[in-house]
Write a structure and sequence with these properties.
The complex is a heterodimer of chains A (204) and B (295). With 204 residues, chain A is α/β, with parallel strands linked by helices. Chain A contains six helices and twelve strands. In chain B, 43% of the residues lie in helices and 12% in strands. Classes of the chains: A alpha/beta (204), B alpha/beta (295).
């Protein structure tokens, strides 16, 4: 039984899912770790954390988590990916090419800034979400090389799109969970709320 | 009190991304590829795996630059490499070729018996081994962005990894029960920087991720250290000294993710072939121990 709404699932194959949990704790939202297919369905929103996309892909294909997340998204529920999570959501992955969930119409290049010594903290702009510049942490981050017609760019840093949205799917190439800034997670929770009420009006 | 500066945030950031994963020792590009295909979240490049260093003896140094570069070219996951304790020039070389994490490691022959590398000026992050809280905090004080319990590398025996993990988590718990005025005496006893002792006392954990290493050879070993509080797992000789490395690598990755689901760990343990041969650590001479290198 769900005691609290909304329930956010953190896909916890590997990576920094605990930091997303810390952020949700600060926002007073309940969450649980999701490692099995049956758990996916019980959630109102899902977060795919940062980590290694190649590692997570193994579990997605071999334990059925990938198809379960795709079904979840196809029901119109909100999914948010950061860094590796964004790579997993993309339609096309480059450097090297690898399979993905294909839920977000972008092409994304892995490790596109270089190696760890090229990781950086940047100031980016998300004009629709915040009038102030946001601190954005890029760790061996990908770069979005192509943005589909139905994809909205919500955030940019150094002229590159870094936060994008297509319907119920949200993806960041940086790690808001590594900072104290709640802007991006608040935006995601608002989406969860909106999609939830439009999907199940009787629960309001 | 101890605080992250911005470069430290990036260094710790990568360690955060590795949590819940398995970092595997590899000596060739081919092994690195096997590790990546099995789901490793990073690989550690070294000249010889610890079991061979133990057997063959001699001076163990940083791996050859050529091989590290081949490994970096072969895989898309982070590549770590080991430098000798105190050998800051090896660390500089590793940083300059773009290694993602430098392991200042007791598995290699120490270059300096008094001083560890001053790690703050480096842009590359460092991981260091520790057997107890004092040692962990000294390394963090020098700029390490990740701690791994030392265990006893190349032994195939989990007992030392368990000892070190229990020591660190137990000492952390004890610190949280102390009163403010008791912390300086504790810092003196631990031989650890006061500001870090204060930080751990208030937060009940290390300020950087704490992984486990040194003796993990089976999926159940990985589950054990994860349940004892390790945030990720290093597997050294355990994979490529076993009879079926690809299969064992995959099983350890799966068991690390599902560490608290015994039924899944059981599946991981099935049909793996022979684990690496183990050593009774209690029968080793003090000078044969790798964990006592560094302080």
């Amino acid at each position: 039984m769900k005691t609290q709404y909304p329930h956010i699932g953190l896909v916890a194959v590997q990576g920094d899912f605990a930091l997303h949990g810390r952020m949700l704790d600060r926002l007073g939202v309940s969450w649980r770790l999701v490692r099995q297919v049956a758990q996916v369905e019980e959630m109102d929103g899902l977060i795919l954390p940062g980590g290694e996309s190649t590692t997570m892909l193994k579990f997605f294909s071999e334990e059925g988590l990938g198809p379960a997340i795709r079904r979840f998204a196809e029901q119109g529920k909100a999914v948010f990916g950061t860094c590796a999570g964004a790579i997993l959501l993309a339609r096309e992955v480059l450097n090297p090419p690898q399979p993905s969930l294909g839920l977000l119409d972008i092409s994304i290049e892995r490790n596109a800034y270089g190696r760890q010594i090229d990781s950086s903290v940047q100031q980016g702009e998300c004009p629709e979400l915040s009038s102030e510049p946001l601190e954005m942490v890029f760790i061996r981050a990908p770069i979005i090389r192509r943005v589909g017609d139905n994809v909205r760019v919500l955030g940019r840093a150094q002229d590159l799109p870094v936060l994008v949205e297509q319907g119920n799917i949200l993806a960041a190439t940086f790690h808001p969970e590594l900072t104290e800034d709640e802007t991006i997670h608040r935006h995601f929770l608002k989406k969860v709320e909106e999609l939830h009420s439009s999907n199940t009006p009787e629960r309001g | 009190m101890w605080e992250y500066d911005q470069p430290m945030k990036l260094k710790v950031g990568l360690a955060e991304m590795l949590k819940g994963g398995v970092i595997m020792d590899v000596t060739t590009a081919e092994q690195a590829k096997i590790a990546e295909d099995a789901g490793a979240c990073a690989v550690m490049a070294l000249e010889r795996v610890p079991a061979d260093i133990r057997k063959e003896g001699g001076v163990a140094r940083m791996a050859s630059v050529k091989i590290i570069k081949e490994i970096m070219a072969a895989v898309s996951i982070p590549v770590m490499a080991k430098a000798r304790i105190g050998h800051f020039a090896e660390a500089q070389v590793l940083e300059s070729i773009g290694v993602d994490y430098v392991d200042e490691s007791e598995v290699l022959t120490p270059a300096d018996e008094e001083h560890h590398i001053h790690k703050w000026p480096f842009k590359a992050p460092f991981v260091c081994g520790a057997r107890n809280l004092g040692e962990a905090l000294r390394r963090i004080g020098e700029g390490a962005a990740m701690i791994r319990t030392k265990g006893e590398a190349g032994s195939g025996n989990i007992v030392e990894a368990v000892r070190h993990l229990r020591a660190i988590t137990g000492e952390i718990r004890q610190l949280t029960t102390l009163r403010e005025e008791e912390l300086m005496a504790k810092a003196k006893e631990l031989g650890a920087p006061y500001d870090l002792v204060q930080w751990v006392s208030q937060n009940g954990k290390l300020p950087v991720p704490n992984f486990s290493a040194g003796g993990i050879a089976t999926p159940a070993d990985a589950s054990l250290v994860m349940q004892l509080g390790a945030e990720a797992v290093f597997v050294g000789s355990g994979i490529f000294k076993s009879s079926d490395p690809a299969k064992r690598a995959k099983a350890i990755v799966r068991a690390t993710t599902h560490y608290n689901e015994p039924a899944v760990v059981a599946e991981c343990c099935e049909g793996l072939g022979e684990a690496m041969p183990g050593i009774d650590v209690a029968k080793l001479e003090p000078k044969q121990l790798l964990q006592t290198r560094g302080w």
